[in-house]
TrEMBL record:
<keyword id="KW-0697">Rotamase</keyword>
<feature type="signal peptide">
    <location>
        <begin position="1"/>
        <end position="18"/>
    </location>
</feature>
<dbReference type="Pfam" id="PF00639">
    <property type="entry name" value="Rotamase"/>
</dbReference>
<feature type="domain" description="PpiC">
    <location>
        <begin position="270"/>
        <end position="367"/>
    </location>
</feature>
<keyword id="KW-0732">Signal</keyword>
<keyword id="KW-0413">Isomerase</keyword>
<dbReference type="InterPro" id="IPR027304">
    <property type="entry name" value="Trigger_fact/SurA_dom_sf"/>
</dbReference>
<feature type="domain" description="PpiC">
    <location>
        <begin position="167"/>
        <end position="267"/>
    </location>
</feature>
<dbReference type="InterPro" id="IPR023058">
    <property type="entry name" value="PPIase_PpiC_CS"/>
</dbReference>
<protein>
    <submittedName>
        <fullName>Peptidylprolyl isomerase</fullName>
        <ecNumber>5.2.1.8</ecNumber>
    </submittedName>
</protein>
<dbReference type="InterPro" id="IPR046357">
    <property type="entry name" value="PPIase_dom_sf"/>
</dbReference>
<dbReference type="InterPro" id="IPR000297">
    <property type="entry name" value="PPIase_PpiC"/>
</dbReference>
<dbReference type="GO" id="GO:0003755">
    <property type="term" value="F:peptidyl-prolyl cis-trans isomerase activity"/>
</dbReference>
<dbReference type="InterPro" id="IPR050280">
    <property type="entry name" value="OMP_Chaperone_SurA"/>
</dbReference>
Length: 440
């Protein structure tokens, strides 16, 4: 399957901000219809493959990028469009990922020597192109499905000595306690927002202050504007404050799970409100972890002497809203499965804790950072462990079903490409003529 590996590559989210001055960022190495591929893009993708332990050569990188450009070109022809709301949501998510990866906005600015607004602007086109390519690809394969008979046939075609090894997997439940904002930090944040409120009341522009001070990456670029919200969409504290304000009025300082808000309601319409805000978050690295550690230590002892079950303790005490309703089970965000590979792909702190544990053991409290950046502690319970083994239909049907469907979709996409390349203009630079794109 010539498209199998590169087809997977274009589905992976990546961003490439210019940092390496050694690459030629100006040379165009390919043109696909009205879309260009730069030499720097090819080299960035090759380096990314090395970093991900999945090396590709420059021809494979070029082909992957060409496939993405071809999908985007055809999407334009076929009127396949990514909605602005979805683009903004994905763009904000990418920026939040960067904040988590680099620790803070300040670190990002120092790393790239560019403002957050500039980086976000540069990232926008990349994200839109990737999302358009993904949507076009989904359109091509949207009617594909797989039957149990096809899964079995796919499995039977795999030579027995080539069956994939399924790595050791574990099912883990967790109880999370978040570190609380100290009185000192809380007072500092309230004082800062109170000063900003005073400046607005004295005539300064709310939107400009939001752009300068707000720590809500999704709205600060728009001057804190959150658009229209229906009742129930925002956290209760925010909604209650926003809906009690007259148009144009400022709220007192509002505390929520996200931090501290200064809110200005712009307009009310029945059960909807249009508001903007300035958000300040606590410095999570300065929070005191003693309280959650002591609490979880005590809770662990209660569970171990059967004073309370782990399941009941989750419902009563865990502060991780994403896992409480699922019995504390940690879900793999990439696959949606409750089975987590016990390998280097796992968060290091969690891996080194779980790897030596025996079934039914509860860990000591360990540091934890939530997906949205909050700091806390957690204890985990090893509920199940599936040792590494060769794939089989009994234990691994869902994985094999996914493999079989991906294979089927690859064939559909490959057929589509062979037809599509005749409908768009393709020109490859002489330096890359050795690369036989699209199997030509």
């Amino acid at each position: 399957m010539m498209f199998k590996k590169i087809w997977i590559l274009i589905l992976l989210p990546f961003c490439s901000f210019a940092q390496n001055t050694n690459v030629n960022i100006d040379k165009i190495v390919a043109k696909i219809d009205n879309y260009y591929i730069l030499k720097s893009e090819v080299e960035t993708l090759v380096e990314r493959g090395k970093a991900d332990n999945d090396p590709i050569d420059r021809c494979q990188a070029l082909e992957s990028l060409a496939i993405q450009k071809l999908l985007v070109a055809k999407a334009e022809i076929d009127s396949v469009i990514v909605e602005d709301a979805m683009l903004v949501e994905q763009l904000n998510a990418r920026m939040q990922e960067m904040v988590r990866a680099y620790g803070s906005e300040k670190n990002i600015v120092q790393q790239f020597n560019k403002s957050i607004e500039t980086l976000k602007s540069e990232l926008k086109n990349q994200v839109k192109e990737q999302m358009t390519a993904q949507k076009m690809q989904a359109t091509i394969t949207e009617k594909s499905n797989i039957t149990p008979h096809e899964v079995k046939a796919f499995f039977n075609r795999i030579p027995k000595d080539s069956l994939p090894i399924i790595p050791t997997e574990v099912i883990i439940a967790q109880i999370v306690r978040l570190a609380k904002v100290t009185k000192t930090q809380k007072a500092e944040l309230i004082e800062r927002l109170t000063d900003i409120k005073r400046r607005v009341e004295l005539g300064e522009n709310f939107a400009e202050l939001a752009k300068e001070y707000s720590e809500d990456q999704g709205s600060k670029i728009y001057g804190g504007d959150l658009g229209w919200s229906k009742r129930g969409q925002m956290v209760p504290e925010f909604e209650a404050a926003a809906m009690q304000l007259d148009s144009g009025k400022l709220s007192d300082i509002v505390e929520s799970d996200f931090g501290f808000h200064l809110i200005q309601t712009l307009e009310l319409r029945g059960q909807e409100f249009h508001a903007r805000h300035i958000l300040l978050r606590p410095d999570y690295s300065r929070l005191d972890l003693d309280e959650p550690k002591h609490f979880l230590d005590s809770l662990k002892k209660q569970i171990e002497i059967d004073s309370i079950t782990f399941a009941k303790a989750i419902k009563l005490h865990s502060e991780d809203k994403q896992t409480v309703d699922a019995g504390g089970i940690i879900i793999d965000p990439q696959t949606g499965s409750d089975k987590l590979p016990l390998d280097v792909s796992m968060e290091p702190n969690l891996y080194f804790t779980v790897e030596p544990m025996k079934l039914g053991n509860i860990s000591a409290p360990m540091n934890y950072r939530t997906p949205d950046g909050k700091t806390g502690m957690r204890i985990v319970l090893l509920k199940k462990k599936i040792e590494a083994h060769k794939a089989n239909l009994t234990d691994d049907y869902e994985k094999l079903k996914s493999f079989a469907l991906n294979n089927k979709q690859s064939e559909i996409v490959e057929k589509w490409f062979r037809e599509a390349i005749n409908e768009v203009y393709i020109n490859i630079d002489a330096e890359y003529q050795v690369c036989k794109l699209f199997g030509q």
